[in-house]
UniProtKB/TrEMBL annotation:
This is Lipoprotein. It comes from the Bacteria. Keywords: Signal. Residues 1-20 form the signal peptide. The lineage of its organism: Bacteria, Pseudomonadati, Pseudomonadota, Gammaproteobacteria, Alteromonadales.
Length: 96
């Protein structure tokens, strides 16, 4: 029993920092996190103020292509108060 407890505590201590780096809590308590689809983001925040599409690593070679990243920008409030300009990056349709 004691060993199981310590394994659980150790596992949580490793996973919590990773989850904290990729999440944002809104003032209504809803959480935005990596891996969410665009539909989930629109459900939580509504339509963005601005949508941009960026191409990273552009190549002149027709075989290699740059990676396309969509960036959605919102003016929102966080759970800690205050207004924020929140930019969300999407790669392959998921929050990155």
């Amino acid at each position: 029993m004691r060993l199981t407890y310590w394994i659980f505590v150790f596992g949580m201590s490793l996973s919590l920092p990773a989850m904290a780096n990729c999440s944002f809590r809104l003032d209504d308590g809803k959480l935005l996190r990596c891996g969410m689809s665009g539909i989930e983001v629109v459900d939580r925040l509504g339509q963005p103020l601005l949508k941009e599409q960026l191409t990273l690593g552009v190549s002149t070679n027709s075989v290699e292509r740059g990676q396309t990243v969509d960036v959605w920008s919102y003016k929102t409030r966080a759970d800690m108060g205050g207004e924020f300009l929140l930019s969300i990056e999407f790669t392959d349709g998921k929050v990155y």
